[in-house]
Structure formats: structure tokens, C-alpha cells
């Protein structure tokens, strides 16, 4: 019985769940408003959800977690910046940003997928550095691209600002769509609908012909190859999808945050997303949509409740940031030690 | 470098020029990039040389600490960040106790070394569990350890670890260390220049002495082995002597002529170079080489692969902790929560730029890499300013180069490995 629970849930997930619940009840015991806590958990879950979802296709295709998520994020940011530059606002602005980013994400994702096909066996490290290099190259372009919009540009000097607000365009537009309060908990209906909608679409993809073939290729390349599956093409398709989800993910994230962050902000964004899906029960070779929902709720939920609780207990310093670092990187290391034993 | 290539040439019946170009392509690209940067940036030449001399002193030891794990097949050890943390732990304690100068350095090393051994051992164990993924594991270990490091120095210091009230390095509320810790503003005060200023000698005189000593060493060694030293093999050293003499004697180069070098620091660097060469001649070194070539064959031959890999990582971590001490005593200001984080990435970029790869590295590649990488570092902000009117662009370009060069060389390595595997499969 004990072994069954261990294998089904896994030690790290058990630790993090108990940590999450422990911190949550500690917060309640310290007199922090529970409704506010739950509001924060739900908001952060919706905010980060699609970025975590981007891990599903890449893991299923066998290329491992998409450590090059910043590439997708950059194309999403490009979509936002262009949509604002041509003066789009409201829902059409949000949709416009997604549509503008799509061709970029597809093209970049295609070449990224081809790159991964050349470097089989070392995808994760190379993905990380491809992401890093792309972010720093894009930093140069944020400075030299000729955007004119006043909200985005530095009033003096060259280039776009590090951070600029979306309040005059489409900040919080999804969060506020059909939003309501129940027992003091704010439910961002539009945000949740978008997240679960995206989850459903990815689920449909995994059940499609290409999706099942991709999964087969990722789990057992030799067998899939023998059955006539074009593994390399499927890996490219999966990574295009992952890049597109990264782009959509950052657009949803930014509208929920209310601000757009450029330059070095995307540099480290892949790691929390990777950690989330691993906490949800995925490994570097297997992932399902359900892992995304569980993982992002647990990890972002933990961080959402840890922040006020840590501030209550340790008013000085940023203890929740340290918890994030240890949990996030600890779970990634744990997953890496499992890569071999699963017989890759 | 020069001397290294030439005997090989003779041995392998003169590879054609194309092959030589192909093998040294990274070095060539960065040499060209440096030259372009130097021309564009228009910085005074003596400033660049002075800057380069001090950067060689403070970074070479860290870069050299990467060589052993590469030869042992562990790959690029991103985990040296953990060693750097151990070095900083020592520096923090010594600065807190107010010990300065050489005793301070010795005590720092005494504290840092056992900590680095333990951390390196743990990193090595982890690398054995993540074989094939050591490099991403090393990167993440750095981030993970950074979380624990911050926990110790932001929360435990002043609460669990008692500190004297009013210590300048502790935050005003008494809990946690400040973001920056001064190691002194000049020599004699704190740990600043504790090693560098033990003995400062004019860099050109030092180069002349070193070159002459090398020439003498070569002639004596060759005579012992019973053949005459060809004059051609001494030319690079002679050029060095002549150039140094010209700089010292011609009044036009007065600004260049008075640059000084930290002798003790340089001697330590030479010491690590010699260690890296000599250890490969021992049994342990041969084991490194064997598991670097093939873990399977090595284990069949009776080598304890896992244990040897752990030893390689421990050595690297310990050297990295010493390297970080050398680095920080030169800088003089410790960025408590940031100084260690860049160490892995920058050192790895440097050794790769010098022409090393995931499986091959030697001291010359490390040293050439430091020179080229830091030349690019020195000139890129001003070159960016001249080219685009913005110094920030140069800095972003610089980090692009760091990430790009690591990504590309790992990519090339994986690509070669994949094609070799494919070839093997088709041959079967």
C-alpha cells in the first residue's frame, strides 16, 4: 500500500504538497485572509498555466522539457509590441497580438525543431543556451527596432522600456471577463477559460493522429521508426506547437500581470515552467495535460501563499524567493537523475 | 601554441592548411573579432593592455580549473559555481574576523578547501546519477546551491549564527549580509590585493625573464635527450623578448612600459598549469584519460569510473574556490549574492573561445581563451557605442557571445556525436 502511494504520487510531489498545505494553514493560523490567499493561487495558476502547457508537446516528442521556452516568449512579446505599435486595444488587441506572434513563433519553432534533430541526446543543455542566446540577441533588437509608440519608448534615448503598462490597451482584459466573487474569492473567469481551453486544445492534439505518432516516437523511437513514423518531422511539429504555446502563454501572462517585461525578463522563465510540470508528476520523457494543471496549481500555489506567510514570519528579506529557488531547481535536478534510470 | 602545433605537423605529414584552419576556427574568429573591436573602440592601447594584464591575473585560475573534468569525460563543469561559493564563504569569515594580508589568504584557503571538497564530492555524486546530462545538471546545481547560499547568508546570519552588533557587512537590522561587502579599498586594508601586491614586477621584464628561462629550459632538455635545438622552435620566445625590449626602451611606449604584473598570482596560475600537465602523467591522470575516452572500456580495465569522476569534480571544485579567492582579492568588492553566479558561464565561454571542446582541453586553450574572451569584454561596450551609438548594445552583444559560443560548441559536439553514432549503426 505504502509503495503504491509512493509510486503513484512520487516523493517530491508528496513533499511539495505537504509544504503547500502546511504553508497554507500556517498562513490561515497567522490570521492572513484565506479568501485572498485562494484568489492569489487561482490568479497565478491562470497566469503561468499556458507557459507550463508548452512543456507537454516537447516532452511527449522526446526532446525533453522545452528549456528554450524564452524563444517562444520572445515571439509573443514581439506580437504584443507590434499590436500596441499599430494602436490595437481591447479584445481585438489581445487577439491581434496572438495572431501577429503566430507566424514568428511557427518559423522560429520550425528552425528550433530542426536544430534539436541535429543534436539528439543533448537537447536540454543546448535548448537552454539557445534560449539564453536568443534573449540576449533580442535585447539588441529591442533597442534598435524603430518603434514609435509613446507608452513603449523611453522618453529620452533609444529603444523600448524595460517594463511598460498595458492598462490603456488590454491589461487584465481576460482576468476581468465575466469575473465574479464567491465567498470573497475573486474568480478570473476569462483567464481560467483561456487556460483550460488551451489545455483542451493540447489534449485534442495529443489524441490526434500526429499527436499519437509523436508520443510513440518520443517513448520508443526505434519501434516508432519501424512502424513508419517520421520521428524527425513530428519532433519539429511538437516544438513548433511548444513555441506557439510559449508565445500565447506570455501574452496571457502579460495581460494578467498588467505589464509587459522586455529585455532580460524572459531569460529565466523556462525554469519555473519546467519545474511546474515536473511537480505535477511529469518526467523528462513523459507528460500529460493533467500534470500541467496539478503542477502549476501546486508550484504557483505554494509561491502565492509562501509570499505573504514568509513576509509575516520573516519581515526582512525575500524568503519566498529562496523557497522558489530551492524547490524549482531541486525538482529539476531530481528529474535529471531519473533520465538515465528510465533507460534513455 | 606555436610550439605545440609544429611537432604535430611533422608527425602527421603536414596536414593541409584547410584542416588547420578548420580546427582552429573558433580561435581565428575571435581573434578577428578582437582586432575589429580594438580598431572600432579606439581605446588607448596602454589602457587595454593594463586592463588585460589584470584580467589575466584574476580569471585564469578559474578557467584552468575546468580542464580536469573535461579530460575525465565529465564535460564542462558548470558546477564550479559551487566552488566559488566555498571561496566566498572563506572570504566572508576572514573579512569578519578582520584578518588581512597573507595570513588572511591562507586562512581563507584553509576554510574554503574542506567546504569545496564536500560540495565537489556531492556534485560528483550527482553527476554520476545524471550521466549524459552533466552540463544541464551542473547549471541547475549552481542555481540550487545559490538558493541554499542565500538562505544561509540572508536568514541564518544574525539569527542562528550570532554576529557582533554593528559589523559593517551585516544589514542595519542585524539579520543577513549586505549585498556588497568591501574587502578593502587599497592594499593593506582588508583582503584587497592581499595576493597581487605581495610582489609587483614590471610585466615586460617578467615576460623577458620567462621567455629566456623557457629558451634555456628547452636547450638543456634537448641536449639531455641528445639532439640540437632547432632555432626555429625558439623564434616565438625570441620575438617576445624583442617586443618586450622595444616597449621598455622606446620612449613612445612609455605608457605601456610601466605596467606591472602580480608575480605571486601569476606563479599560482603557472603552478596550476603545471599541475594539470603533471597529473596526466600519474596513474590518476591516466585513469582520467581512459574514462574520458570510454567509460565502458575503462571499467572493463578495472578502473572505478564513478569514483574517478568524483575525484575529477572535487579537484575542479577546490581549484574553483581558490580561483574565486584570487578573483575577489583583485576586485576588492564582493557582490555577496552575485559574484559567484557568472563564474561558471564566463569561464566556460573563455575556455571554449580558446579552442577547447566538451572533450578536449589544454592549458594553452585556457590561457588563449582568457586573453581573447577578455579582450572582447574590454572593447565591446565602446565598440557598441561607436557602431550603434549605445554602449548597452555592446554589453548585450557580449552576453550574446557568451551564450552563443557555449550553445554552438555544445551543438557541434552533439552533432558530431550523433553523426558518429549514425555511422556506427549503418555499419552494423
Name a few traits of the molecule.
heterodimer; A: 344 residues; mainly alpha; ABC transporter involved in vitamin B12 uptake, BtuC; two-stranded antiparallel sheet; 72% helix; 3% strand; globular; B: 428 residues; two-stranded antiparallel ribbon; 4 strands; disordered N terminus
Structure write-up:
The complex is a heterodimer of chains A (344) and B (428). By secondary structure, chain A is mainly alpha-helical. Chain A has a single domain, classed as ABC transporter involved in vitamin B12 uptake, BtuC. In chain A, 72% of the residues lie in helices and 3% in strands. Chain A contains 15 helices and four strands. Chain A has a two-stranded antiparallel sheet with strand order 1-4. A two-stranded antiparallel sheet of chain A has the order 2-3. In chain A, helix 4 crosses helix 10. The longest helix of chain A is centred in the first third of the chain and has 29 residues. Chain A is globular. The two termini of chain A are 29 Å apart. Chain B is mostly helical and 428 residues long. Chain B has one domain. Chain B is 71% helix and 3% strand. In chain B, the strands form two sheets. A two-stranded antiparallel sheet of chain B has the order 1-4. The longest helix of chain B is centred in the last third of the chain and has 37 residues. The N terminus of chain B is likely disordered.
Topology:
The complex is a heterodimer of chains A (344) and B (428).
Chain A: H1 2-9, H2 11-29, H3 34-53, H4 55-61, H5 69-85, H6 90-118, H7 123-144, E1 163-165, H8 173-176, E2 180-182, E3 185-187, H9 189-207, H10 209-219, H11 221-226, H12 231-257, E4 259-261, H13 270-279, H14 289-313, H15 319-341
Antiparallel strand pairs in A: 1-4, 2-3
Helix pairs in contact in A: 2-14, 3-9, 3-12, 3-13, 3-14, 4-10, 4-12, 5-6, 5-7, 5-12, 6-12, 9-10, 10-12, 13-14, 13-15, 14-15
Chain B: H1 2-11, H2 17-23, H3 25-41, H4 45-64, H5 67-71, H6 80-97, H7 101-129, H8 134-156, E1 180-182, E2 200-202, H9 203-225, H10 235-249, H11 254-257, E3 260-262, H12 263-279, H13 283-293, H14 295-300, H15 305-331, E4 333-335, H16 343-353, H17 363-388, H18 391-427
Antiparallel strand pairs in B: 1-4, 2-3
Helix pairs in contact in B: 3-17, 4-12, 4-15, 4-16, 4-17, 6-7, 6-8, 6-15, 7-8, 7-15, 9-10, 13-15, 16-17, 16-18, 17-18
